[in-house]
Task: inverse folding
């Protein structure tokens, strides 16, 4: 989120992001929800639940210079939500790329079992090189599939 609105950040790498944060909190962190939202405030919760789809955040920065790499898996809880965000960012002319792990592993496993890939991806992104590798297959200009090890 911060990279989308901060004009000084133009290279972003996001690992299995939580696109709808309230959905995630309700499913995985419900007993801690009051730490995030001490009072019942449906308006505030709705705002944060849909923050990535709020048009106002995209008016603050020219996204044409921003490059985003999302890493997710087909079995991640919010895979479909991330695809929706990916398509929205395409419409906003933001250079966003999605790397999809093809295994059926869950959220944590696709991160922890692929730390060498993550380190390599960070090196590639920070040196402004083209994302490629022996386990990566390009589907189109901004969608890559990662064969799990």
Result:
């Amino acid at each position: 989120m911060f990279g989308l609105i901060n004009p000084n950040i133009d290279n972003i790498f996001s690992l299995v992001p939580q696109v709808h944060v309230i959905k995630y909190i309700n499913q995985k962190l419900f007993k801690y929800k009051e730490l995030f939202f001490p009072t019942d405030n449906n308006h505030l919760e709705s705002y944060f639940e849909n923050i990535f789809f709020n048009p106002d955040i995209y008016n603050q920065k020219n996204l044409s210079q921003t490059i985003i790499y999302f890493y997710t898996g087909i079995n991640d809880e919010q895979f479909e939500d991330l695809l929706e965000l990916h398509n929205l960012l395409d419409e906003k002319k933001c250079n966003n790329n999605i790397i999809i792990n093809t295994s059926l592993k869950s959220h944590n496993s696709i991160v922890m079992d692929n730390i060498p890939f993550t380190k390599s991806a960070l090196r590639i992104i920070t040196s402004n090189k083209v994302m490629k590798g022996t386990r990566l297959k390009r589907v189109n200009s901004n969608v890559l599939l990662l064969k799990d090890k």
Notes: The longest strand covers residues 67-73. The beta strands are 11-15, 67-73, 95-101, 136-140, 143-146.
